[in-house]
Structures are given as structure tokens and as C-alpha cells.
Design brief:
E_motif; PPR_At4g14850-like_plant; PPR_rpt; repeat
Length: 512
């Protein structure tokens, strides 16, 4: 609580109000998402002699839970004890939720056990604490012991099972339920999308008599996650035809699908919809628009979206840096990164560094990439992850510094991933470096023990590039004997808003 400072002007206004009015202000601010301001108002309220009650404390505790501020939560709990409201049912339930959001199951259990008369809300709060903390087996045990259950209890368990991929258990509960509401259906659909079973998810979706925007968003997001991008785009237009108003999550999902498909026409149509509906102020939508235009080859349109946006969050900056790097504008990406960090209000995160390191890699900016990699921890307190090491391996490999790339692969504090190994092996083919290629092969065997069709082909090409034709034939034979077939490349074109896929030699096109 000490980190929040009161606002003098608001204190002056509150001094002319009663306690009920102060409580209304706090509830209004919390409902509008101004959580920190609601807590500041509470501080002002105390300074003029008013105190929270059994209606105010639940709102404040919920705000502290959403802010993930343990210090605030503990301080508020102490104040409920001091003011005599810690034994009130509303406050106790809010405390259970608070400690559940912190992952402190023991404290949540202690509060729950202290509740004299437990209603459905109290039981469900404790159940949700178990499920949302990943303790689904404990949640199931608790669910079976519950004295009071309702449809909310069922929904919590379906979501809990879905979150850990136990779809069969979720479906068993769903099918046996005497009463199901819209949340039950949405939770079950989400469980299927979580394991990329879009056939079952779509069956449930089609059998529903009532759907809301969450239903549509779950299926669209599931299609994108399962790389069924055309289906995601098609469902978006079905949604509009059904007169369901898409929100920022819907738009972000369909723009992601357009980005992967290279569907510029459709992406521009979605952009027009965004402008007409006044949704361009959403960070999520702005970031998705930048990514869509960049991936569809329109970097200047991406820049227009970026610079026309009044407020930019870290995802907008990262998307723009990534787009510039993808198009080979490495120096521009570095300048944008410097602009972002110079402002000081937005600090780079892991995704930003992946974007800027990739930009250096695509433009051959070895020195700058090495400097940025060193700055991650020294200047920004970010410990490099395997993805960042992968970017550095790619940077060094593309520049022909294969020895340094191999050394980094062997000394990095993670097992080399498929992307990093593939980047170095590809560079070995380009530079006809058989010795380093064999070292990469050893790393592949030691870390994974198996190889993909693309890696088989790269090794065959490496030996062929070095004039070792017998060895190249041997690797191709090994691939054939293993029953592996090289994944065929294909092209996708957009005609009148529809996507068509074709392979070399195809006489007919098909939907991707």
C-alpha cells in the first residue's frame, strides 16, 4: 500500500461525500479497470475518516488479486482483521480468491476452513483456486466432496481438465451434467481446441443453439493454433453473417490467419472493418495489423499503421521491429529499437529481442547483434532464452562464422533446438563445410536421436556440394528406407478473397 500515493484533488472531492458515495466511486473505478486508482481512492477515503466495509473490501481484494500485488493483498487482509470484517462471508470469499490468484493454496485453504456457513460461491471459489493453480487432481477430489454444487462448479472442472489436456474427463462431466449453460459449452470447446482437436470442437460448435462472441473466438483461435488458417477466415465471415459483433480478440485472430496465408485482400477488408467499427485503438488489433501487412509484403502499410497509432504498447513496437527485419531493413529495425528504449516508458521484453536479433541476422549485422545480445542481461535484466541463442547461431551462421556458431551451440545453457541446428546445417551446405556439418550431425543424434525429412535432405545436399556423391546417395537411401517422404512445397494465391493452394505440376487448385 505504501507504493501508492494519494491524489490531493480527489481527497478534496471525497471530503464532501459520505461513506456510501466513496464506496460507489471505488466500485465504479474497479469496474472500469482503473484498479490502481480504486486503491488510491481507498487511501484518500481513510485520510478523511471513512473506512471500508463488507461491500468495499471484496472490491479492493479483487483489485489486488488482478494486480498480482502480494504486498497490497496482505495489507488489505490485515485491515479486514483490524476493522472486524475478516469474518464476513463476502470478504472471506474474496480472500480465498486473492490467495488463489497468488498461488498460495495453504492460505486459501485456511481462509476457506474458517468460513462458518459456506455457500455455493465459497465452495466454487475454493474449487477454482485448486483448478486455476494447476492442481486439477486436488480440484477433482474437492469437487467430489463438495456439499453444494451448481453449474458453475461443473464449468470450473471442465475448464480445469481442459487446461491440462484431459479432454476425456472433461467430456464425461459435460455429458453427465443435468444442467449445462453457455459457459459449459464454451469450456468444452476450449478443451478441444487446447489439444488441436478441431473436428470435435467444430461438432460441438455446430450443435449449439446459442453462441456468444467467446464461442466464436474460441473456434477461430483454435483454427489458427491448428494452422487451419482458411477455416479461421471463413468462420470470421460466418460470424459477421450471423450478426455477431466481433471484438478485438476476434479481429486479432483472423488477422493472424491472414498473415500466415499471405491473404492481403482479406486482411485489408478486415482493416476496413476495424476502422469502421472504431477498433483501431486496441493494442492487440494494431499489433496484428502491423504483423499482417509485414508478412503480406506491404511493409509501408505496416509503417503507416504503426505511426498512425496514438498509443503503442510493447507488442506494437516488437511487431514493427520484426516486420522491418523480415524485409531486410536491419538498420531501420535497430533505429526503431533505439527509439523505443530511449523513451524509457516501454522496456523491451523477450519477444522484442527475438525480433531485433532476427533483424540483425537477416541483414548481416553481426557486430550490432553481438552487442545487443550482451545488453540483454547487462542493461535490461533479461536472461537470454533458447530462442535468443538460436537467433545468435543463425546470425553467426549466415555471416559464415561457422566455428563461432558451433561453439555457441555447444556452450549454450540449453539443449540446441531444431531451429538452431537447422540454421547451422543449412549454412554448412552454403559454405561447403563438411567438418562442421558432421559436428552438427553428432549434436542432432545426442540431443534428439532422430532427424526430420528436411535435415536428411540437407545432409545429402551437403555431401553432394562437397563432391561426396556416394555419401549423398546413402543419406537419400536412408531417408527412403525409413519411409520418409520430403514434404512438398506449395504456393498459395488469393483470388477474390479466396485462397487456393497448388503444387508444381498440379492441373487443379485446391483450398489450403
Amino acid at each position: 500500500m505504501a507504493q501508492l500515493m494519494a491524489a490531493p484533488a480527489l481527497t478534496f472531492q471525497l471530503s464532501f461525500s459520505g461513506q456510501k458515495e466513496c464506496n460507489k466511486v471505488i466500485r465504479k473505478q474497479a469496474a472500469d479497470g482503473s484498479l490502481e486508482q480504486a486503491l488510491l481512492t481507498y487511501i484518500d477515503m481513510q485520510e478523511i475518516g471513512f473506512f471500508a466495509d463488507n461491500y468495499t473490501f471484496p472490491v479492493l481484494l479483487k483489485a489486488a488479486a488482478k494486480l498480482r500485488d502480494c504486498g497490497l493483498g496482505y495489507a488489505l487482509h490485515c485491515q479486514t482483521v483490524k476493522t472486524g470484517f475478516s469474518s464476513h462471508a463476502f470478504v472471506q470469499t474474496a480472500l480465498v480468491n486473492l490467495y488463489g490468484s497468488y498461488g498460495e493454496l495453504d492460505n486459501a485453504c485456511r481462509v476457506f476452513d474458517s468460513i462458518a456457513l459456506k455457500d455455493e460461491i465459497a465452495w466454487n471459489s475454493m474449487l477454482d483456486t485448486y483448478a486455476s493453480s494447476g492442481e486439477v487432481p486436488m480440484a477433482a477430489e474437492f469437487f467430489n466432496s463438495m456439499e453444494i454444487k451448481d453449474v458453475a462448479s461443473l464449468n470450473i472442472m471442465i475448464s480445469g481438465y481442459g487446461s491440462i489436456g484431459h479432454v476425456a474427463s472433461a467430456r464425461a462431466l459435460f455429458d453427465k451434467a443435468p444442467v449445462r449453460d453457455l459457459t459449459s459449452w464454451n469450456s468444452m470447446i476450449f478443451a478441444y481446441t487446447k489439444i488441436n482437436d478441431m473436428v470435435e470442437a467444430r461438432k460441438l460448435f455446430d450443435s449449439m443453439q446459442e453462441r456468444n462472441v467467446i464461442t466464436w473466438n474460441s473456434v477461430i483461435a483454435g483454427y489458427v493454433s491448428s494452422q487451419l488458417y482458411s477455416e479461421a477466415v471463413s468462420l470470421f465471415f460466418d460470424m459477421r453473417a450471423d450478426d455477431i459483433k466481433p471484438d478485438h480478440l476476434t479481429v486479432s485472430g483472423v488477422l493472424s490467419a491472414c498473415s500466415h496465408l499471405g491473404a492481403l485482400e482479406t486482411g485489408m477488408e478486415v482493416h476496413t472493418y476495424v476502422l469502421n467499427r472504431g477498433m483501431s485503438s486496441s493494442f492487440h488489433v494494431t499489433s496484428s495489423l502491423i504483423g499482417m501487412y509485414a508478412n503480406c509484403g506491404c511493409i509501408w502499410s505496416a509503417l503507416q499503421v504503426f505511426y498512425k497509432s496514438d498509443v503503442k504498447d510493447i507488442y506494437c513496437w516488437s511487431s514493427m521491429i520484426s516486420g522491418l527485419g523480415l524485409h531486410g531493413y536491419g538498420h531501420a529495425a535497430l533505429e526503431l529499437f533505439d527509439q523505443m528504449t530511449e523513451k524509457g516508458s516501454i522496456l523491451p521484453d523477450d519477444i522484442t529481442f527475438i525480433a531485433v536479433l532476427s533483424a540483425c541476422s537477416h541483414s548481416g549485422l553481426v557486430k550490432q547483434g553481438l552487442e545487443l545480445f550482451d545488453k540483454m542481461e547487462a542493461d535490461f535484466g533479461l536472461t537470454p532464452k533458447s530462442e535468443h541463442y538460436g537467433c545468435m547461431v543463425d546470425l553467426l551462421a549466415r555471416a559464415g562464422l561457422l566455428d563461432q556458431a558451433l561453439h555457441l551451440l555447444k556452450t549454450m545453457p540449453f539443449e540446441p533446438g531444431e531451429t538452431a541446428l537447422g540454421a547451422l546445417l543449412s549454412a554448412c551446405v552454403t559454405h561447403q563445410d563438411l567438418e562442421t556439418g558432421n559436428e552438427v550431425l553428432k549434436l542432432m543424434h545426442s540431443t534428439r536421436g532422430e532427424m526430420s525429412d528436411g535435415e536428411f535432405m540437407m545432409l545429402a545436399n551437403l555431401y553432394a556440394a562437397c563432391g561426396r556423391w556416394d555419401e549423398a546417395d546413402r543419406w537419400r537411401s536412408m531417408m527412403n528406407n525409413a519411409g520418409m517422404v520430403k514434404t512438398a512445397g506449395f504456393s498459395v494465391v488469393e483470388v477474390d478473397g479466396k485462397m487456393y493452394k497448388f503444387l508444381a505440376g498440379d492441373r487443379e487448385v485446391q483450398s489450403p
